[in-house]
Specification:
Layout lengths: L1 H36 L4 H15 L2 H14 L4 H14 L2 H10 L5 H17 L2 H33 L10 H18 L2 H13 L5 H14 L1 H8 L4 H23 L1 H14 L5 H20 L3 H11 L19 H26 L6 H23 L8 H24 L2 H9 L1 H12 L2 H7 L8 H28 L4 H30 L28
């Protein structure tokens, strides 16, 4: 008897896993995109969380995607809270599937053919067709597991006295809630725990009040999965897990205190529509339980957010706050998170470039900022190393490549900002200082674009600046060498000035190329600069090399 019950739970779990994985493969990206498309306000955020969880049959998948979208800056933390509310409500759909189809419609005769057909599709087909086979096989296994579980529960009723179970008074209700917590924690699946309670109710092992109390405990017990997953995760992941835990504890406490009214309300509503089946009434209780929790907590969301942010403050650098390793398996989200991070770093570096020529800035302060920028670039590159985009994913792959190029040029800019000798020479040679200050003023439109104040990147301005500095470098090279030959300046000073001019030239070039590649990440295709005629030495006349 115990083995049959245990096996039924296992078959149901395998079916749920197969069906969820198949659904995520077939339509996961489209479902995830709906989270960002329909989360403008609180009600739409709740609705999108409910819809995605209902279709995927996995609240954990919805919450994980939500964490990624918060990390990438697609949605706010407040919107994420409402999505988590909706995701919890979406888990109640499992109860309706089981109570309406598993118990009312006998699918046992067609479940095995579904499993067989699905398994053949998984073995013989590829891509989304194989994933559809996973969905089919998983759906069939759900009902095989339910039938097996019911069989075990019928035998269980022969050996267990129902009267021995705790009643639904205050003490007994609390004990039943504890039983539900243990069930969900041990099974690590609220769906499996819920189906077990439904099967026990359907076979008469427990009554509606006892089953309802157990379900309350199961909703609290399922949060152990989120609590375990939060260990070692990012701050955003821990915040989302804490929202999930807080919501279920608050909804459970409210249901415990108002339990008689909840059950009476469900019985009255079921009687009004002519429903007497206890399993359907339990599913209705489960849905009502979550709806009541959402309504009760809705006005307190701002306070809940403030408390969670105070308990779990952001400790990572502001530059890399958008990066979360949990989203590297979703290339589109990961690349967007890295793009926003790269733009933040670029803004930081532009400010540093201005401060290099400011005599009031202490070198120690600049070095501290350069260390922060270098670490942020290293963390972003490490984050992107876990992202995989393929040429078949045209837009994402194009953005991914552009971002890698941009990070390389930003890294070279940081290295150039550490070249103290060249900086000192530019600051103390009047001609070089005047050129540097003039060109720095041309970076103002860059800052405006990076901060979102302009629609198009000032690429023509940056390209012209790079061309101009290349021309000045060539002209001054001839002038400096002429002065060295006549003895106007010594050879060592001449070399210093030539190197400083090359340094300015490099800065302008890497700024241009970094902004060019960052602008590529905003659109599917950006036309590269047209080729200019080449001189005999192979360099472009009037243009800098544009290969990177």
């Amino acid at each position: 008897m115990i083995l049959v019950i245990f096996g039924g739970i296992g078959i149901f779990l395998i079916g749920m896993i197969l069906m969820t994985d198949g659904l995520k493969s077939v339509g996961g990206n489209a479902l995830r995109s709906s989270l960002t498309r329909f989360t403008g306000g609180p009600l739409s955020a709740i609705a999108s969380g409910f819809a995605v969880t209902s279709l995927l049959q996995a609240s954990a998948a919805t919450i994980l995607a939500t964490i990624g979208f918060v990390s990438a800056g697609f949605i706010s933390f407040t919107q994420a809270i409402f999505i988590v509310f909706g995701a919890n409500l979406g888990t109640s759909v499992t109860g309706w599937i089981v109570s309406l189809l598993g118990f009312q419609v006998k699918l046992g005769t067609v479940a095995m053919p579904l499993v067989g057909a699905g398994a053949l599709m998984m073995l013989l087909l590829h891509g989304k067709n194989a994933s559809r086979g996973m969905v089919l096989a998983g759906f069939g296994l759900l009902f095989v597991g339910i039938d097996t579980l019911q069989l075990g529960m019928k035998d269980f009723a022969l050996y267990v006295d129902v009267a021995a179970f705790p009643g639904a008074d205050w003490t007994g209700r609390l004990l039943l809630i504890v039983i539900g917590i243990v069930m969900a924690a041990l099974m690590q699946s609220q769906s499996a725990a819920l189906v077990t309670a439904l099967a026990a109710l359907n076979t008469g092992n427990i009554n509606l009040e006892q089953a309802a109390a157990i379900v309350i405990g199961q909703s609290i017990g399922k949060t152990t999965t989120a609590a375990i997953a939060a260990f070692g995760a990012s701050v955003l992941a821990r915040r989302a897990a804490l929202v999930h835990i807080s919501f279920n504890f608050a909804a459970g406490t409210l249901a415990y205190l108002l339990f008689p009214y909840y059950v009476a309300g469900v019985r009255a509503a079921s009687g009004a529509v002519g429903v007497a089946d206890p399993s359907i009434m339990l599913s209705a209780f489960f849905t009502f339980y979550y709806c009541a929790g959402i309504i009760a907590l809705y006005p307190f969301v701002p306070r809940l957010r403030a408390v969670i942010e105070r308990l779990l403050p952001e400790k990572s650098s502001d530059l890399t706050r958008n990066l979360d390793s949990n989203v590297t398996h979703v290339p589109a989200v990961a690349v967007e998170a890295a793009r926003r991070t790269a733009i933040s770093i670029a803004v930081h570096i532009m400010v540093t470039l201005h401060d290099l020529m400011n005599p009031e800035m202490r070198r120690r302060d600049i070095e501290t900022r350069l260390d922060e920028e270098e670490k942020a670039l290293r963390d972003t590159s490490r984050f992107l190393s876990g992202v995989r985009s393929r040429p078949g994913m045209a837009a994402v792959h194009h953005q991914h490549l552009g971002l890698l190029h941009a990070l390389d040029h930003l890294d070279r800019l940081v290295d150039a900002c550490r070249e103290v000798d060249e900086i000192r020479t530019v600051a103390h040679v009047d001609g070089l200082r005047a050129v540097a200050l003039e060109k720095l003023t041309q970076l103002d439109p860059v800052m405006g674009w990076l901060q979102g104040n302009a629609r198009e990147a000032p690429l023509s301005i940056l390209e012209a600046m790079s061309q101009s500095l290349a021309g000045i470098r060539k002209a001054q090279r001839v002038e400096v060498l002429e002065k060295t030959a006549t003895g106007a300046i010594d050879a060592e000073r001449a070399l210093e000035q030539l190197e400083a001019m090359r340094w300015l030239d490099r800065l302008a070039y890497h700024v241009w190329r970094a902004i060019y590649h960052l602008s590529e990440t905003l659109q599917e295709k950006v036309e590269p600069p047209r080729d200019a005629p080449r001189s005999q030495d192979g360099r472009r006349r009037g243009r800098r090399p544009a290969e990177n």
